[in-house]
Every structure is written in C-alpha cells, then in structure tokens.
Amino acid sequence: MYDFLIIGCGFAGSVLAERLADQGKKILIVDKRDHIGGNAYDYYNEEGIMIHKYGPHIFHTNSEEVFKYLSRFTEWRPYEHRVLASVDGQLVPIPINLTTINKLYGSNLSSSEVKEFLASKAEARKPVLTSEDVVINAVGKELYEKFFRGYTKKQWDLDPSDLDASVTARVPTRTNSDDRYFTDIFQAMPKNSYTEMFRKMLSHPNIHIMLNTNYKDIVDMIPHKKLIFTGPIDSYFDFRFGKLPYRSIDFRFETLDQHKYQTSGTINYPTSNLYTRITEFKHLTGQQHLKTAIVYEYPTGEGDPYYPIPRKENQEVYNQYKKLADETPDVYFTGRLGTYKYYNMDQVVAQSLALFRKISKENENDNQ
C-alpha cells in the first residue's frame, strides 16, 4: 500500500514525492516517458554534448525558498541568459532596451531620451486586455510589428489581439542597457545537469519509480491512499468537457563540427523563417567541447502538450474541470498541465511546496 501515487516525474511530481517521502510517506511515482525530469530532462548526445531534450530550460527565480530547496540537490553554475532578435538584418537585444533602440535607429540616445522616444511611439490602449494591447500601449505599432506580432503568431498560431495580455506581459521593455533576458535575483544552471538534480531528489528509500508506464494501466492494480496528478487535467476526466488546447514544439537538433555557432544562448526570429528561435546549449551549460549542438524550435498544434493557450474561452473550459477536480476526493492536481497555467519552473516548484504544506496540514487534522 502506497500513501501516494504520483503521476508525472517532472518538477511538480518530483518535488512532492521528495517532500512527502521525507515525512515518512511511501511513494510510487509513475511516468509514461522513459526518463525522470519531465520536460527539464537533459542528457549527453552521441557526440558527448549536453542537450536539453525538450528545448532550453533556464532556471531563474526571485524566491529564496525555491532556490534554497533545489540547492539541496544540486550545486549551481551562475548563468544569465541573453537573447538576441534578428530584426531588419541586425541582431539586437530582446527584451527591447537602450542598445536595441540605438542599433535599430542608428541613434545615440540616453536612457531618458529612450524613455521619451518610446513614450512618443506608444499608443494608449484602455483597458489593456490582449497581448497586442500590452505591447502597443508600451512601445507602439512599429516595434510591435518588428518584434512581437510575427513571433507570437508563430508560437501560438493566433494573432496577439486574440491572446490574453499575460503572454506578452512576460517580456518587459527597458530604457537602460541591461541585456539580460531575466532580472531575477537567482539565475543559475544546475552544475551537473537537471537530470542529476532529479536523481538526487528522487533517491529517497521511500520513493519507488515506474517509467514507460501509463498510469491508467496500473491505477486500479496498485493500492494507494491518495493520488497526485500532474498530467493534463482534461485527460484525467476523459475530456468530459472537451479538449483543452495546447501548443507544442517540434525540436530539430543539429550537431555542428565547429566550436561555436552563435554569439548568445538564444536568437529569436520574429519575422523570418518558420522556426521561432535557435538555442546553442554550450552557452547554457558552460561545457567545453570541440563541437557544438543547437536546436531549432518549430511551434505546432500537434505533439506533447507544452503550453496551455491563455484565452478566456479556454479558461472557462478549465474552470469546469477545476470544479470537478475540487469535488474528487483524495486526488490533487498540480503543475502546468494539472492546473492549465503557463508556469515557469520555479513557479511549479513553489506551487508544489505550497501543495505539500496543504497536504501536511490535512494529515495533521486527520490524525487529531
């Protein structure tokens, strides 16, 4: 008899498995893939280059609690991600900053002048409801067309005017020359790999792992008291209210017989090409190797569910599933797919730590 059957071996499931096992609970964690780590899984390819199987995963957080928790399972390599965008035949920093504007317009503006320049371009949108509104409200139509519209259309197969404001709100605009993609307090990569971090996290004697396993094949055969589900919530309920839409990515990897391919970890292609971006892994991992590995990302509507699509009508369908989930005893839903929310890795960890505290409290109450 297991205390918890956990479906999904990514951040959401693994954090809960480790925390509950540490409390003396017996855990079985199941994943349909042949590896632990979920979408953060990384490994050495045939040439011995460390790559991220499901695209670049760059860790960043403002949460000291999350960083300290993960630090139990890994040392860190400091890394600040920088992204360039291919616009008007030039490579310029994104998020848009002082350097971006000066390079694009051949100017030499100061911070305060860039602020005035962007204000002169901006077109007031009230209320700000869509992704288009967010950008045009901040930087105007011209920069919106150059940097955001094409990229967003490729990524989501929707015009930004049809997407929730939260999508482009994730990308700020800066008037200084800070060219880091993220400004979080903690920015680093696991020193030995994400997979190694997960191995340590799941190495507790109370945790048993089953890979290559569809939970539906075993859920009725393996006795357990409670279930934690980190897969798509609509699939758990057999799509009773219809399928929740997701975007997926077709990753195309290449190993190149050269030391380095590009000048930054990631280069975005907002208007040209069918792919959205190219990432070169050695920037992220700091690995020394004579060859290099890159990945092209082609967004698609088919394949593994990666990105919940933030639109009002999708949220309404999710709310029906959420109501059903709340009425289902002894089953907890968490993670990006379990709660249909576009979370970063650190947010998933924080969510799982919060759920752990909730479960612990329930256990205390049951034992009183």
TrEMBL record:
Signal peptide: none annotated. One of its GO terms (cellular component) is cytosol. Its cofactor is FAD. Residues 146-342 form the UDP-galactopyranose mutase C-terminal domain. Keywords: FAD, Flavoprotein, Isomerase. It comes from the Bacteria. Pfam families: GLF (PF03275), NAD_binding_8 (PF13450). GO terms for molecular function: flavin adenine dinucleotide binding; UDP-galactopyranose mutase activity. Its EC number is 5.4.99.9. The keyword Flavoprotein applies. It is an enzyme of class 5 (isomerase). Belongs to the UDP-galactopyranose/dTDP-fucopyranose mutase family. This is UDP-galactopyranose mutase. It comes from Chryseobacterium cheonjiense. The gene is glf.
